[in-house]
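hiii so um. not sure if this is the right channel but i have a protein structure encoded as tokens and i wanna go backwards to a sequence. like what aa goes where. can anyone help
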């Protein structure tokens, strides 16, 4: 029964999609008038409804014949930005070349990002509301949520024969992840303006779509900057490096490579160079990815909060270790390097919940980072004993820990699990219905 129902919904979705692709708004109006008037004129050939049905049918027939006379070919090049953000329109450059000997006018740049969920997804959504027809509303919301992007048709200026045209396209991404763009599609209406003739130029490309991000307040997890001898290569390009500070007299035990020979020759006594030690603040950002629901709103908001930390304006001496679990435990160190930051953002954009892992698997890699860390930020998607056990282990290392526990706004979790945490762990409950407001108080 579920399979038959799914097939019917798929047919309705495909019919609506095909009509919107093949017919202009005027063409859809003519088709509706034909269907309504044809039904109203059943049993009578002399009524006004019958005449309207015949007239509408003739218009559609002429539009089909007229669309066959349209001929156009083109090549295209597309230049995409580095990232897109959910809900925010982004522009991209297009270079279109007319390959015919005729001028082309009234061409429209169109995009199709329609997506129909799988049968497994349909069954999962339907089982959430097994009583009555309540699942219908949830299914509609889920189908709308799975759409990748919106690209409104854009009319291009006159494209002369054998010439190139620069154009700017725009789309609004609706989901995070990797948005695949298979082709550039142009549509041209027939002389009556009822039917579209579409032509696609294969141009596979992709762009990484980030979740929306939030504004974060200034946070000071570490009371002082700590000396990190093993991070000289990074620190030397990020702030307080081993740079010259002053000259002073030699003291017993000073290394010989610090002796300033020119000054010794000038004053007649040993002089050494005094340099400033490198210092750095190194935080860990732990993202909880362990959830059973693959399309959880709590998980999506947790990823958005993690992206917000990566996109926040930071001081020059800050390093951030992004630690999360996918097929395995990952640890990415993000500093000032645009390449490292872009890699971390791309990973977060495509991350999915883990359903077959344990939270304890994060602890070994976190323990290896303890000697370098000044503080830790944990973004949790649920509250249970396993997560609290990890937090207690973190606190035993006398490390400042800030916990951001996200929850569904309608179901506030039991906060008594945090009663056993030491004072150096601060817990902040964040409702997914008011993430920005709650983040201002962390």
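sure thing!! here u go:
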């Amino acid at each position: 029964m579920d399979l038959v129902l799914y097939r019917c919904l798929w047919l309705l979705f495909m019919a609506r999609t095909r009509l919107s692709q093949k017919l202009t708004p005027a063409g859809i109006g003519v088709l509706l008038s034909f269907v309504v008037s044809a039904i109203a004129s059943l049993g009578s050939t002399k009524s006004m409804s019958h005449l309207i049905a015949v007239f509408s049918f003739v218009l559609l027939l002429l539009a089909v014949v007229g669309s066959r006379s349209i001929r156009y070919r083109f090549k295209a090049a597309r230049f995409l930005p580095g990232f897109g953000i959910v809900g925010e329109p982004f522009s991209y450059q297009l270079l279109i070349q007319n390959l015919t000997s005729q001028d082309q006018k009234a061409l429209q740049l169109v995009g199709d990002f329609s997506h129909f969920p799988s049968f497994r997804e349909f069954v999962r959504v339907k089982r959430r509301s097994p009583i009555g027809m309540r699942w219908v509303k949830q299914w509609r919301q889920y189908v709308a949520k799975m759409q990748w992007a919106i690209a409104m048709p854009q009319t291009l200026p006159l494209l002369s024969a054998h010439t190139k045209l620069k154009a700017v396209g725009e789309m609004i991404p609706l989901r995070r992840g990797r948005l695949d763009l298979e082709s550039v599609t142009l549509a041209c209406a027939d002389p009556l303006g009822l039917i579209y003739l579409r032509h696609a130029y294969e141009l596979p490309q992709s762009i990484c779509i980030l979740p929306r991000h939030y504004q974060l307040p200034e946070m000071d997890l570490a009371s002082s900057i700590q000396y990190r001898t093993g991070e000289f290569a990074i620190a030397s390009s990020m702030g307080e490096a081993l740079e010259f500070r002053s000259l002073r007299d030699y003291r017993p035990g000073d290394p010989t490579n610090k002796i300033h020979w020119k000054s010794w020759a000038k004053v007649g006594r040993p002089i050494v160079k005094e340099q400033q030690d490198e210092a750095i603040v190194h935080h860990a950002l732990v993202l909880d990815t362990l959830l059973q629901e693959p399309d959880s709103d709590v998980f999506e908001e947790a990823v958005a909060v993690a992206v917000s930390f990566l996109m926040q304006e930071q001081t020059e001496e800050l390093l951030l270790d992004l630690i999360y679990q996918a097929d395995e435990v990952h640890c990415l160190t993000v500093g000032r390097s645009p390449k490292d930051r872009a890699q971390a953002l791309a990973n977060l954009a495509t991350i999915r919940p883990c359903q077959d892992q344990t939270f304890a698997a994060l602890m070994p890699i976190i323990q290896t980072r303890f000697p370098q860390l000044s503080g830790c930020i944990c973004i949790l998607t649920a509250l249970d004993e396993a997560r609290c056990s990890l937090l207690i282990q973190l606190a035993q290392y006398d490390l400042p820990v800030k916990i951001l526990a996200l929850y569904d706004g309608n179901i506030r979790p039991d906060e008594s699990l945090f009663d056993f945490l030491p004072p150096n762990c601060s817990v902040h409950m964040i409702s997914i219905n008011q993430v920005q407001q709650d983040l201002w108080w962390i």
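oh and The chain is about 30% helix and 25% strand.
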